[in-house]
User: Fold Conjugative transposon protein TraK from Pinibacter aurantiacus.
Amino acid sequence: MFSKMKHIDTAFRYVRMFTFVIILGSLLLSGFVIYKSYELATVAKNKVYVLAGGKALEALATDRKDNVPVEARDHVFMFHHYFFTLDPDDKVIQRNITKALYLSDASAKRQYENLKESGYYSNIIAGNISQQISIDSISINVDSHPYYFRCYATQQIIRATSIVYRLLITEGYLRNVERSDNNSHGFLIEKWHTIENRDEKTVNR
Assistant:
């Protein structure tokens, strides 16, 4: 009789141990599944699919801080492109200046108004002059906000008989703002001013 009870007790311990192992394994498996599901959901959330030419292309979404230097440089580039790319057409001038002013604060508007009052844009139209700009380099300090920048560029003043090359150096600060259709990078240029703007050479056409 005692031997029989001993066998029953041993069998009960085995069943209890087996049950414990099953429960522990189930808990570990459930935890692993939940972890992998969360990881997969995070990866999927960071993926964006763009439809281009009838094909779905995958784009990876990242934190803005990873792209601040790139986006900041492009913002400064686009602002200078719009502000200094001019043709002898009032509508072209107005369109480009409007785009530039969306990317900056009142400091750029003051420079525009000063140029307008001095007859700069009228002279461009009257003299059939085109103005283009080539950005040489843009340095951005992203260690502190607002971000300080300095832009080095070359202007080309294209006249009927000559092309004047001018050195242009400007500086200012970039402040974070909400993105919009008119300001896709979400920066606003502040305290913008020209450090240097002088003729370097003239080439006859």
Summary: The radius of gyration is 32 Å. The beta strands are 47-52, 55-60, 130-141, 147-158, 162-176, 187-204. The helical segments are 2-45, 64-84, 90-102, 106-117, 120-126. The chain has five helices and six strands.
